[in-house]
């Protein structure tokens, strides 16, 4: 069984990371407690994507954080990434799984209860559910689903899942109250003055919620 922790899932954005860059942002966020790091860079060339992925792979070596590549199967395989994340229009999960092999983590974005129900736990390892709120970090974003929609979609499948889309620090309790396994953040860490400090704040809020619940 694959071991991974969805608690604090950082999705990198080249533009938001600005002068600090995606690699240094990732390093800082992981120091602060980020458990997963996804490289999402739709505007990068194949070579640029490969170089960034290699740098991230090296930077995260020796940490417990998992490196996930968004959409790009070839780059994920080439760098030996921990996982790949795909959307609804990036090929069937079954075809993708056949290409990446059994050992790589495979995540799938879903927006509706129907999509969640169709996700096969024998193929997909976790779901990314959202957007919870409107977000400017993704082009052609699906309609937001809010907390009620998040809970409804999550309840349709027993797979681990992470919430994504406009999530900020004050939302941690409401997101986790749906039962979901973790939350994905972009602008709440990328481009902030101290990505490490922001990640620590999220990590503390997550720990507080779980401690209070436990």
From TrEMBL:
Catalytic activity: 2-[(2R,5Z)-2-carboxy-4-methylthiazol-5(2H)-ylidene]ethyl phosphate + 4-amino-2-methyl-5-(diphosphooxymethyl)pyrimidine + 2 H(+) = thiamine phosphate + CO2 + diphosphate; 2-(2-carboxy-4-methylthiazol-5-yl)ethyl phosphate + 4-amino-2-methyl-5-(diphosphooxymethyl)pyrimidine + 2 H(+) = thiamine phosphate + CO2 + diphosphate; 4-methyl-5-(2-phosphooxyethyl)-thiazole + 4-amino-2-methyl-5-(diphosphooxymethyl)pyrimidine + H(+) = thiamine phosphate + diphosphate
Keyword Magnesium in record: yes
Gene Ontology biological process: thiamine biosynthetic process; thiamine diphosphate biosynthetic process
Binding site for Mg(2+): 71, 90
Superkingdom, natural source: Bacteria
Cofactor: Mg(2+)
Annotated 2-[(2R,5Z)-2-carboxy-4-methylthiazol-5(2H)-ylidene]ethyl phosphate binding sites: 135-137, 166, 186-187
Catalytic class of the enzyme: transferase
GO molecular function: magnesium ion binding; thiamine-phosphate diphosphorylase activity
A Gene Ontology cellular-component term: cytoplasm
Segments forming domain Thiamine phosphate synthase/TenI: 8-189
EC number, UniProt record: 2.5.1.3
Record keywords: Magnesium, Metal-binding, Thiamine biosynthesis, Transferase
Pathway connected to this protein: Cofactor biosynthesis; thiamine diphosphate biosynthesis; thiamine phosphate from 4-amino-2-methyl-5-diphosphomethylpyrimidine and 4-methyl-5-(2-phosphoethyl)-thiazole: step 1/1
Residues annotated as binding 4-amino-2-methyl-5-(diphosphooxymethyl)pyrimidine: 38-42, 70, 109, 138
InterPro entries, per database record: Aldolase_TIM, ThiamineP_synth_sf, ThiamineP_synth_TenI, TMP_synthase
A Pfam family recorded for this sequence: TMP-TENI
Residues in coiled coil: none
Cofactor remark from the record: Binds 1 Mg(2+) ion per subunit.
PANTHER family xref list: THIAMINE BIOSYNTHETIC BIFUNCTIONAL ENZYME (PTHR20857:SF23), THIAMINE-PHOSPHATE PYROPHOSPHORYLASE (PTHR20857)
Name of the protein described by the UniProt record: Thiamine-phosphate synthase
């Amino acid at each position: 069984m694959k071991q991974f922790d969805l608690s604090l899932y950082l999705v990198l954005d080249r533009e938001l990371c600005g002068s600090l860059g995606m690699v240094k942002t990732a390093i800082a966020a992981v120091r602060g407690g980020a458990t997963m790091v996804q490289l999402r860079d739709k505007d990068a060339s194949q070579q640029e994507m490969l170089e960034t992925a290699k740098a991230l792979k090296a930077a995260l070596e020796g940490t417990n954080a998992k490196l996930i590549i968004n959409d790009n199967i070839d780059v994920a395989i080439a760098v030996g990434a921990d996982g790949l994340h795909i959307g609804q229009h990036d090929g069937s999960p079954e075809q993708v799984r056949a290409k990446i092999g059994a050992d790589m983590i495979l995540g799938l974005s879903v927006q509706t209860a129907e999509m969640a129900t169709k996700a096969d736990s024998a193929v997909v390892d976790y779901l990314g559910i959202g957007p919870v709120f409107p977000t400017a970090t993704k082009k052609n974003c699906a309609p937001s689903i809010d907390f009620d929609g998040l809970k409804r979609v999550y309840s349709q499948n027993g797979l681990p899942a992470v919430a994504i889309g406009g999530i900020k620090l004050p939302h941690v309790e409401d997101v986790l109250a749906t039962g979901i396994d973790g939350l994905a953040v972009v602008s709440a860490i990328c481009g902030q003055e101290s990505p490490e400090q922001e990640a620590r704040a999220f990590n503390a809020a997550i720990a507080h919620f779980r401690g209070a619940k436990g």
